[in-house]
Amino acid sequence: MNGGVVELRQLRYFVTVAEELHFGRAAERLHIVQPAVSQQVRRLERELAVSLFVRTTRSVSLTEAGQRFLPRARAVLAAAVRAVDSVAEFRPAGALVRLGTSEGLGDRLEVLLGAFTRLAPSASLELVHAPTPQRLQRVRDGSLDATIVRGSWPGAGLDFTPLWTDEVVVALPASHPLASSPSVEFASLASLPARLSPPSRNRPLYDLVVSSCREAGFEPVLGKEFTTAQDTLGTLGFGRPHWTVFYRAHANLLPVPGVAFRPLKNPSPRMQTSLATPADRRLTPELVALIEAARTVEATP
Predict the structure, then answer these.
(1) Alpha-carbon torsion angle 141, 146, 151, 155, nearest 10
(2) If you write DSSP's letter for every residue of 75-135 in order, what string do you get?
(3) Model confidence, pTM
(4) Which of 117, 248, 279, 297 would suit a FRET pair with 226, their CA atoms being 20 to 30 Å apart?
(5) What is the rounded CA–CA span in Å between residue 14 and residue 29?
(6) 107 has a pLDDT exceeding 70
(7) Which residues pair with residue 160 across a beta bridge?
(8) What one-character DSSP code corresponds to residue 300?
(9) pLDDT tens digit sequence for 197-218
(10) How far apart are CA 85 and CA 250, in angstroms?
(11) Which domains does the chain carry?
């Protein structure tokens, strides 16, 4: 090492990129811009005096050093969580609720945070983003108090409180004839390639869309995978005609030149959203307030 200090932030960014193998997706998960992720990973590599990733214009992969470093970095981050948890009993009542969040919450998250602040003014929320299986495991082991999840997941050790359902809308090139209608028949998408997140990244949404296609009488023509919202929408607006889907609450925040969002019909898919909490621990007043705040979000379009 060069005598500097490796920061927990750098380890978190490294682990996220290692899990996504894509700097853009990692930035979305971390809720920061991509250059900041790249910069911190570069600094970490300078401190370690090794390259952790092989970067090309088409792909990102771990070097041998990166593969060896990854489990140690995860262990350090887990130790940091345990260190914070070790003093939890000394925190003042209502100090902190650690909430896992899902992608694409859009304006629903703002409504949730506002309602929670009104119901529990002495408490604060720490938002944590990670893949759904990781968030559910962190609820089980106590390093998260709760997490928002979409769709159905294995429920061992967890309670799921239904919160709201999200309308799924189609995103199309604004110049496409289908975009001229106020809503889109699902069957009319049969001849266009679909750009979807693969099951490995978002099994509930993938299954919902594919089952909706089959209900409409066709098998989807799968094109290039959904990467980030920015990249996918950029290609959608100005590339060859294809389609993808977004949750309505997310689409509300995504006015993109060249892209039209339209409701779907026959069928009109909706995704259930729930709050996962530990099954073996009593709900704190703050978690009760969080559940009540989340239930108010159903009114959000």
Answers:
(1) 40
(2) HHHHHHHHHHHTTGGGSPTT--EEEEE-TT-THHHHHHHHHHHHH-TT--EEEEE--HHHH
(3) 0.63
(4) 297
(5) 12
(6) yes
(7) 276
(8) -
(9) 888 888 899 999 999 999 999 9
(10) 33
(11) 8-85 (1.10.10.10), 94-301 (3.40.190.290)
